[in-house]
Amino acid sequence: MPSSNPFWGHPWRWYWLALVVVVVDVVTKVWAVDMFMHGPSMQIIPGLLQFTYAENYGAAFSFLSDAGGWQRWFFGIIAFGFSVIVSIWVWRLPARKRWEPCALALILGGALGNLWDRVLLGYVRDFISVYYGSWHFPVFNVADMGISIGAAMLIIELLFFAEKDSDKAKNNVEV
């Protein structure tokens, strides 16, 4: 895919990645509803990982899930505003960047995937359950994975690559 092609070139390739995250998220949520909403959970790795069905009316880790309904629109507006900011951020990044826009695309796709659920249904569909003994991590979905992986990538960028990028920018300016 040559970068001179406006269809696949910078920054469109990152928006395509975000779209892939949204599509995979929605498709897996539809599958999870079909398989697990009225049926038993599926053990993937017994004692560690299962597919199940849960509805999250709040934000991360069910924060404000029992707030009475206003949180649907509140979190929807936050997700929409955040998505606009991330879209502009990706658009303004230099074409040479790879790690940062990839991270932002994963976050954008995850935010839009969960926004889709929140606006259409009033809650987010989750289905991946990780647990060990009596310990249970909150049930999550593909959108949450995109957000988490993208956030981890941004942290790695800040910790290990931000200084190198600023040094490259200084060298380019001084030349």
Please give the count of helices: 4
Number of strands: 4
Q: Taking Cα atoms only, what radius of gyration do you get, to the nearest Å?
A: 19 Å
The helix fraction, in percent, is 55-70%
Distance between the termini: 31 Å
Helix and strand run: HEEHHEEH
Shape: globular
Strand content: 5-15%
- Helix and strand content put the structural class at alpha+beta
Mean pLDDT: 83
> Stretches where pLDDT falls below 50 for ≥5 residues?
none
**What can be said about the biggest beta sheet?**
4 strands, antiparallel
Give the neighbour order of strands across the main sheet: 1-2-3-4
Number of separate structural domains: 1
Organism: Microbulbifer okhotskensis
EC number: 3.4.23.36
Pathway: Protein modification; lipoprotein biosynthesis (signal peptide cleavage)
Protein name: Lipoprotein signal peptidase
Could you please describe the fold and organization of this structure?
It is globular and about 55 Å long. The protein contains four helices and four strands, in the order αββααββα. With 175 residues, the chain is α+β, with helices and mostly antiparallel strands. A four-stranded antiparallel sheet has the order 1-2-3-4. The chain has one domain (52-174). Its EC number is 3.4.23.36. It is a multi-pass membrane protein.
Summarize the topology.
Layout: H1 12-36, E1 42-45, E2 49-56, H2 70-92, H3 99-121, E3 124-132, E4 135-136, H4 142-174
Antiparallel strand pairs: 1-2, 2-3, 3-4
